[in-house]
Amino acid sequence: MQGPTEPLPSTPRRRGAGPESSTPPPRTPRPDHGTGPMPPPRSEPPVRTRSRAARVGRVALALVSVAVLLVTGYAWTVYSALNGNLSTSDVLAGPKSADGATDILLVGLDSRTDARGNPLPRNVLDALNAGESDGESNTDTMILLRVPDDPSRPTTAVSIPRDSYVNIPGQGKHKINSAYASGAAAERARLSAQGVTGPDLNRESDDAGRRLLAETIGQLTGVSIDHYAEINLAGFAAITTAVGGVPVCLSAPVDDAYSGARFPAGPQTLEGAPALAFVRQRHGLPRGDLDRVVRQQAFLAGLSHQVLSAGTLADPAKLSDLLGAVGQFVVVDPGWDLLAFAGQVKGINGGQIEFRTMPVGRSDLSTPSDGDAVQVDPALVQRFFHDLATGPAPADPSAPAAPSPSQLTVDVQNATSRTGLGAAVQDRLDNDGMVPGTLGNTGSRRSSVVTAATAADADRVAQALGGVATEVDPSLPAGRVSVVLGRDYTGPTSSDGSSAPSDAAKPPGDDAPDAAPADTGPPITADGVPCVS
């Protein structure tokens, strides 16, 4: 068993980050990492009468020789060392189905252990401004990377907002960032009862959390996840330092005590603990976690450019530091042949990776036990991921146009004990442009349902209510929709008690930024450094 993780530098550097930063110390010269043979003695100066073509040919031959040396010598050596030192987790169960892409789940974990289950030293956590642990490992970052089989289509990294309200297998509907913690906690209790302790307990519990998270995301997106990679707080900081920092740009200065993010406006280069604070901040941002997602995308675009650039891949010292950080802090699935994957993506440069956000709805969805969450339509999410790999399906010219909200009259029946729920839901649909119909109470029932004469009409209302089940009843008049609110209803304006929903207390005309479906904006690429909130 490997011993405790070595501490990171206690004062990671931030370069170009404004007057409050002290001048960084000069970078310590790196040791010679060369492993190949000594170069041959320099040849005599060329005879001046040799042709220019001969000189060009000799230079080309030298370049090819260097490339061969790197690939067959140093690069193979470091790859072999990394491959033998990587931590693996048997995350992905069952056969993989061909869905037009290689799909990789990338997870950033708020974890206080390294890849082998050893606790991170207190001084490392303090240097990273990690704060106190609540005993659970929550997923701060979830990105599904789609590498299409069709090389003409771009590789896309899709961020999944951590507050997305989704079905977690065996748990019901909760925020997606709790899937890992739920799976790990259940396994920890089982293993503890069997007397398992220490790093083994941490590692096996985390494996269960990873499996539940991967299953949850696969179910949500309709994607067959091929590979898994996970990194924790210390690993993220170490990788940013290994590549020499990452360029970012802020549209306004920030000062956040929760994350330790204190940066001026404008371009700057971040590494270590400041880089971690940059991607973790969500307090004080206009859209909270959704703005943090954009921060992470901009940062990862810059990191991708740094890693894929010749300045990193052709620098043995940087590459060695990078692979060392990966080996110490990254967990991957055991079936991932990294060398083969590198060959698959060798033609990708930073500008060919798009960073996008999974489509989501409202960010003020009230839930019974998870507070406000981000609304998600699984059908829309699955179409989005399908289109990334193969393009949108051709439109059916015979398909009817989606109904306009003003063409729908909605009757609402409250089948719960929550006084005022029906009126609040009808008000919400009225605000969405639909015509209020009848309103009343009915006998208690568990399940909510939306019924209409056509599937399109029912789907339009169901989506506005957070994905309620639908039924088609051709006997209903065209444009007339029936909504029955059951005890399972957790859509917009619902609340856990009998009091009026929180949006009812908003003054008329109060259109808070989080009261509308989220605008995920255009994709971010590594071509340039975008300024973000």
TrEMBL record:
Region annotation Disordered: where it falls in the sequence: 1-51, 486-533
Listed Pfam families: LytR_C (PF13399), LytR_cpsA_psr (PF03816)
Residue stretches of biased makeup (Low complexity): 490-507, 514-527
Signal peptide positions (record): none
Transmembrane segments: 59-79
Keyword Cytoplasm attached: no
Positions of the Cell envelope-related transcriptional attenuator domain: 138-307
Highest taxon listed in the record's lineage: Bacteria
Pro residues bias: start-end ranges: 1-10
Keywords from the named record: Membrane, Transmembrane, Transmembrane helix
Coiled coil location: none
InterPro entries according to UniProt: LytR/CpsA/Psr_C, LytR/CpsA/Psr_CW_biosynth, LytR_CpsA_psr
Occurrences of domain LytR/CpsA/Psr regulator C-terminal (ranges): 407-489
Family per record: Belongs to the LytR/CpsA/Psr (LCP) family.
Protein name: LytR family transcriptional attenuator
